[in-house]
Amino acid sequence: MEIYVVKPGDNVDGIAEAFGLAVSRIIFDNQLVYPYELAVGQALFIGTGVQNPERTVSVGGYAYPFINGWVLEQTLLYLSELLIFSYGFTSEGELIAPLWDDTWMIREAFSFGARPILTLTPFGPDGLFNNRLISSVVNNAAYGENLIRNLLLVMEEKGYQGVDIDFEYILASDRDAFTAFVGRVAEAMGINGYTTSVALAPKTSADQQGLLYEGKDYRALGEIADHVLLMTYEWGYTYGPPMAVAPINQVRRVVEYALTEIPAEKINLGIPNYGYDWPLPYERGVTRATTIGNVQAVRIAVEQGVEISFDAIAQSPFFTYTDKVAGIAHEVWFEDVRSLQAKFDLIKEFGLRGLSYWQIMQWFRANWLLLAENFYIRKG
Questions:
Q1: CB under 8 Å to 173, separation ≥6 — which residues?
Q2: Which of 10, 149, 300, 316 is least enclosed by beta carbons within 10 angstroms?
Q3: Is the dihedral of CA 8, 11, 12, 14 positive or negative?
Q4: Does pLDDT of 125 surpass 90?
Q5: What element of type H or E holds 292?
Q6: 168: annotated active-site residue
Q7: Tens digits of per-residue pLDDT, 74-85?
Q8: pTM score, two decimals?
Q9: Any bridge partners for residue 197, and if so which?
Q10: In whole angstroms, what is the distance from residue 171 CA to residue 377 CA?
């Protein structure tokens, strides 16, 4: 496996000849669009098609029930766990099912040897994380037990194999109550043959300040859960200034801290499967980035005729352009096979359990081919 970075004057025919590959192979693997133009600085996956048999990892992927069926089928070839997003709940512990049918996804997961996982989130009526809902179920024993009973009923009825607890913006005052609640969930799940995982905000120290971090006790949750997900993304986010979504220097800091609290064999590294396009100039509280796919990002660079750069510290690709129609300047950060390889190398370096993608709604073939050449994927 190699990663080739396009130089001025390159074309697909010449690159294919240099590597002794069929042109169609490079086009297919990298989802190039006719007439197969390339952007200078674009990273191409040049694969062998051989899966690495020496390093085994677990691979999770979050998906909404409205995912395209073809995309789900293609992705399930590479997944150990399909995390279906998401179930909510009321302040009294009544479960709220997704707006779309999830049973077809559970069937698909089983048919590809992946475990379907129920993702539990405290979304309020506005669709945002609601810490009042969290407070209610973690501090009221009756409400918490009601939620656990309802979870078990749905899991038995639909065939889910585990629950993933994705609670964010937990109040610092609810930290211990949340930990105790997760303990009760894990005990009930374990008795019934299910697993429990917890999504963790990307902390770099035990006493890190901020609403995202103070309610999560890494050590205690790591002891309770079967495994955890480090949400190592969203440094660059919709309302923030333009920057890498998952800069490797910051991701490394989170992993290094997590390993002081949680065994490596319990840790999944979070991987973003998207990028952002920011209009410029950035104005705090006003500017809103557009979420884009990684393949889409490259298409924008090609269509705008601009070069893709690569930040050596963040290990992430980016470019700027001025929209030819609207005349508005933009800055784009996304993921490519170089930035993904840096994250895969981190997993190898620290011997982590595996990785989980937020999210798998858009198909990025080169990512999955690269993953397969780095790791042997543990199914189920």
A1: none
A2: 149
A3: negative
A4: no
A5: strand 290-292
A6: yes
A7: 999 999 999 999
A8: 0.97
A9: 164, 227
A10: 37
- Distances in whole angstroms, Cα of residue 246 to Cα of each of 205, 240, 255, 261, 313: 18, 13, 12, 22, 11
**Catalytic: which of 108, 168, 214, 261?**
168
Report the C-alpha gap between 232 and 251 in whole angstroms.
Answer: 6
Is residue 133 classed exposed, middle or buried when 0-12, 13-18 and 19+ CB atoms within 10 A define those classes? buried
Helix (H, G, I), strand (E, B) or coil at 244: coil
What residues contact residue 130 under an 8 Å CB cut-off, 6+ apart? 122, 123, 124
- The answer to whether residue 252 scores a pLDDT higher than 90 is yes
Distance of alpha carbon 134 from alpha carbon 122, whole angstroms = 6
β-pair type (56-63, 43-46) = unpaired
33 φψ region: left (φ > 0), alpha (ψ -120 to 50), beta (else): beta
- Tokens matching residue 282: 């950035």
Q: Pairing between strand 354-358 and 267-272?
A: parallel
Alpha-helix residue ranges (DSSP H) falling in the chain: 12-19, 23-29, 69-76, 103-111, 131-139, 141-158, 175-191, 218-224, 248-261, 294-304, 337-350, 365-374
Q: Are 317 and 295 in contact (CB under 8 A)?
A: no
| pLDDT tens string 260-276 | 999 999 999 999 999 99
Torsion of CA 183, 185, 190, 195, to 10 degrees: -100
Domains of the chain: 1-48 (3.10.350.10), 56-273+354-377 (3.20.20.80)
